[in-house]
Design brief:
The protein has two helices and 13 strands; from the N terminus they run H-E-E-E-E-E-E-E-E-E-E-E-E-E-H. By secondary structure, the chain is α+β, with helices and mostly antiparallel strands.
Amino acid sequence: MQTTTPKATRLASLSLLLTSLLFANASPAQTVVFSSNFDGASLPSQINPGSDAALTGVQGFAGLGPVGYQFGGSFLRSATGNTVTLTLQGLPSHTELNLGFLFAAIDSLDGTGSFPSGDYLHITLDGQTLFRESFANADPNQVQSYVSPPGVELARHQDLGFGGPGGFYTDSAYNLAADPRFMHIAHSASTATFSFLIEGQGIQPLSDESWAMDNLIVSVNAVPEPASAGLLALGLLCLTRLRKTRQPA
């Protein structure tokens, strides 16, 4: 019967340790660089609300969302046709960004539409389109281009407050932090500018339709530290040499 020598045991332990370190290092460290639940008395300095957005109570949206990440208190509510901008500076070294927020589609958003020419949520990063999809609340027959992945839709065509024209238009809610298209966005610059806008030729005033965001969060996936990468390389080299010494001449 073959016995295991102390040297073989040490080699196996070293192999397991290095493998664990390699896989741990393969998953980039995620660092939150901005977050806001919009429950303060004023907006964070990184946010420009444009000309027609303000902190507003969430009304019937309260409690929607997964545990620990729900609508509550206040959110940033904007009229359609108004651009909200988030500007971040001094970002740590990274290769990817992740964006997340709870999205409230309020009252008579018209989907893709032919009249009044639709309502599209358009999100850009550094001037490049990241997301552009239509949302429809006004009429069940309207076309909504956004098809939410599992776990994203929180409410659809429900009365969540805000009245709307005539009081019969409904609202919808989405956890866009769970949409994979907002994860692992290639980016490495030390600054990042996001813009959020619902656009369309038929945009209407705040009393008719609007949108809001809550629990806005941005994180970066950091580049592995050179020292860590160097130690891994050295360890793998040592492991290779140890394995060679075990082979019979």
